[in-house]
Design brief:
The protein is built from 7 helices and no strands. The protein is mainly alpha-helical. It has one domain. The mean pLDDT is 78. Keywords: Cell membrane, Membrane, Transmembrane, Transmembrane helix.
Length: 215
């Protein structure tokens, strides 16, 4: 039952990641990230009940508070100040981006399978899917040309890492799990400052103008 739940949640997380990549509206990306984070909070509670690790209930609560409420609220506030709705154009068309993401996700999924990881308590499919989530998040960060999409890509990358940690090492000390959330909070502050500063100087959230800074 635990394996089935973990695999189902991992599939949902990956599908929501593809949804972020396809979405043309910035606020829709934020809502998809919140939904993705909510599924991970549910998985943390399921792991806590299934494996008898009560500390994970605290992690589920903290994850819900930070990722589902605080982070989307901060990004929404920045978007309200910027008054922009449309995500920046990608380096490729949407269809091409999706095809690249499918190829990258497939590579990540089957690469973990080639490693031959076997365990009675490890949902190997969920681990493979978490690697695919991380790689698709990298694609979102690389191909999209606006600060918000790149920030959401980074935040969802952390969700992929959290998914892997829950299925591989759910019994790690709570302080280490909370440290991951603290790193996310720092990233939110950094991206928030970046969004506000970039918009103030360029009057846009697009990062295309930054390409000219490359040597």
């Amino acid at each position: 039952m635990f394996d089935g739940t973990a695999n189902t949640v991992a599939v949902l997380v990956l599908l929501l990641e593809f949804g972020m990549l396809r979405s043309a509206l910035l606020r829709a990306q934020v809502r998809l990230y919140a939904a993705q984070s909510f599924t991970l909070s549910v998985l943390a509670a399921v792991v806590a009940a299934g494996r008898g690790i009560p500390e994970l209930y605290a992690l589920a609560g903290l994850s819900f508070l930070l990722k589902v409420i605080v982070v989307p609220a901060v990004v929404y506030m920045l978007l309200r100040d910027a008054s922009e709705e449309i995500a920046g154009s990608g380096a490729l068309g949407v269809a091409s981006e999706v095809l690249v993401s499918i190829a990258v996700a497939g590579f990540g999924f089957f690469a973990v399978g080639v490693l031959g990881v076997q365990s009675r308590v490890l949902p190997v499919a969920a681990l493979s899917l978490s690697v695919a989530v991380v790689l698709v998040a990298f694609v979102l960060m690389i191909l999209r040309r606006d600060v918000v999409s790149q920030a959401i890509g980074f935040f969802s990358l952390e969700n992929g890492v959290s998914l892997a940690s829950l299925v591989v090492a759910a019994g790690m000390p709570l302080i280490l799990e909370v440290a991951f959330l603290f790193d996310l909070l720092v990233a939110v502050v950094v991206f928030g400052v970046l969004m506000r500063t970039h918009h103030r100087r360029s009057r846009s959230l697009s990062t295309e103008s930054l390409d000219r800074l490359r040597g």
